[in-house]
Specification:
It is built from three helices and seven strands, in the order E-H-E-H-E-E-E-E-E-H. By secondary structure, the chain is α+β, with helices and mostly antiparallel strands. It has one domain. The radius of gyration is 15 Å and the shape is globular.
């Protein structure tokens, strides 16, 4: 049994892997120490498992595309006084074998057994399955 858990999140507004890189390199998306962060309303209850080797997996336009190792969770208090969670991640964005994902709100936990494998370093893409086959496999829970 794995002793860590991952998160999965839609990258709203991103069209491509490069869009995530561009956003995360902006000062607005970084911590004071220059690391990329994503601020979310909810604080994960499984914080210890996330910080024990978990990653955040990014879904771009319905396709799980890449991941980043989560380094820490920072408390952020908004101008409205509400406590939020900043998911601080490694700047290295790792491409993964793509998989279709249905839309969802917020983030979800993603078990290590359900994560796609990383693509070899330097490999920017893979030969995708035909869209209809990929969708059919996703609908029956194979992908």
């Amino acid at each position: 049994m794995d002793n860590f858990i991952n998160l999965i999140k839609l990258s709203v507004g991103s069209e491509t892997y490069e869009d995530i890189l561009a956003w995360q390199s902006s000062k607005r998306a970084q911590t004071k120490d220059g690391l990329p962060r994503h601020v979310t309303r909810m604080w994960p209850k499984r914080e210890a498992e996330i910080l024990n080797g978990g990653s955040i997996y990014w879904v771009i336009k319905g396709v799980l595309t890449c991941r980043q190792r989560i380094l820490r969770l920072d408390e952020v208090i908004g101008s409205d006084g509400i406590r939020r969670c900043a998911i601080v991640s490694d700047p290295d964005l790792i491409r993964v074998q793509t998989a279709l994902k249905r839309p969802f709100q917020g983030w979800r936990y993603l078990k290590p057994a359900d994560t796609p494998p990383d693509l070899p370093k330097g490999r920017t893409a893979e030969d995708p399955l035909p869209t209809e086959l990929n969708r059919a496999l996703a609908e029956i829970g194979v992908l």
